[in-house]
Amino acid sequence: MQILSINSGSSSLKYAIHDIAGGQEDPVESGSLKRIGTADSSFDVREFAGGGIGPPPAKASSRPVALPDHRSALETLARYLDERKGDRQIDCIGHRVVHGGSLYREPQLVNNELLAGLRRLIRLAPDHLPNEIAAIDYCRERYPATPQTVCFDTAFHRDMPVEARRLPLPGRFIEDGLMRYGFHGISCEYIMSRFSEPPESNSEQTSTKLSAAAPARIIIAHLGNGASMTAVRDRRSIDTTMGFTPAGGLVMSTRTGDLDPGVIFFLLREKEMEPEAAAALVSDGAGLLGVSEATGDMGELLKQEAENPLAAEAISLFCYQARKHLGALAFSLGGLDRLVFTGGIGERAGAIRERICSGLGFIGLELDRDANARNESTISRSGAAVTVNVIETDEELMIARHSARLMQRKEEVKNNG
Prior knowledge:
By secondary structure, this protein is an alpha/beta fold.
């Protein structure tokens, strides 16, 4: 079964094709259409040689393309795949959907009823859901005979305790969907899949599993353009830094993270900002970009740090906030057994990982500086109370897995008539 996974972001579109059959999960190719809506957009592709999860790419390429909007990105991808498919048949298209609200707790097959439900949720995620729904609609037009599925970023957090979900507002607002949802759930789910199941589950062990069973108390630090941390106890999310929207929690590339509500009122009243302009500032004009006044890219900030005081200030703020949230989540767990760094910054920026963990020896966090500098999979000091891992996330593979299961159930229902 060949599954195309589509991950629509606010300014990018990632995709991957996996061949899933008989317990095998072979990547065929993956890629991304980056910086949509800018003059320097590009189309990057990696083709894999096959033979198990994550083999070295057989071929990698990047080329500039004109991508004025998300539809043009989808059309570019579709033309590319149609030209290359040959005898290859896509059996299912799976999508990442950022928000499932309180309606959707599990992956779903796409139908008219589901799409109507997603459109009702746009008010909860106006910066993300329109592009994601548009991607589903486009694929329905282009490939009407191909089944589609959706996986929800909020689903991993669906069973958080009431005290972690509840906002301090009168109860009548809960009916409007005002609560803490949490995001980056597909990434968290993938990370947890890398740990062995408890012995009593009798699950098969594969080469992609870590040697240890899932620890009782783990924090997943998904640090990228969007950044969040999630506290997991006994494989269940108990709290996370993002809340009602993906703009909350840690300071991010262009998002503020947590912000005193009074700041918004000040902007609206004293600066006479329109609500749309304030929303754009919070999501697209703040964070590392706003503080540095130069860039929201952590790699670029690290290059500029020595000469640009504002770049240094942005990095310091990011690491301080990450350290503070990490400590709070560790205390909510009653201690910490393992910390996992993932996402673009978490996977590649050893200097940031070191600064985040600095001074946290009192909760057992001690890094091996050489292992950290080499981006090894385990970067904690031998004998440290807390194991620290660096794991490359794979949301597209998680989407493919869910899609394959839904297709299998659909076939079983059809056969049982």
